[in-house]
Amino acid sequence: MPRPHRLVPLLAWALALPAFAASPDDAKGQWLTAEKDAVIEFKACADKPGALCGHIVWDKDAGQPNDTCGVQIARLERYENEAWRDGWVFDPRDGKKYKGALRVKSGDLHIRAYIGTEILGQTEQLRRVTALPASPVCKR
């Protein structure tokens, strides 16, 4: 039988777990793509404050013909089980919309795009940034 003094740290750790649970606001902010070629800002949708929308706010190709500044890449309707769900994500590389899920894990944002069921999808991991790169500047 475990000694009581050994259970105290374990019990304290277990009680602290809920404090680290993800919240819907964890995804809000600016995130740099894995390729470091764009920054996406996630915030409440202007037309539906309970939903989460993502727009490209910095693109390494700003001002070029393939500029994606201002493109909306996500709209997720609800937050459940530590993930934003029930919506879509747009991949500007292939010009297609997919079902989507978005969650924050270990400080990184994971965007999952899929057709049919989430388990068959593909995930992109983004890192939070506190400021946009100085140039080029999106004009939209």
TrEMBL record:
Residues 1-21 form the signal peptide. This is Uncharacterized protein (DUF2147 family). Gene3D superfamilies: 2.40.128.520. Keywords: Signal. InterPro entries: DUF2147. Residues 29-128 form the DUF2147 domain. It comes from the Bacteria. Pfam families: DUF2147. Coiled coil: none annotated.
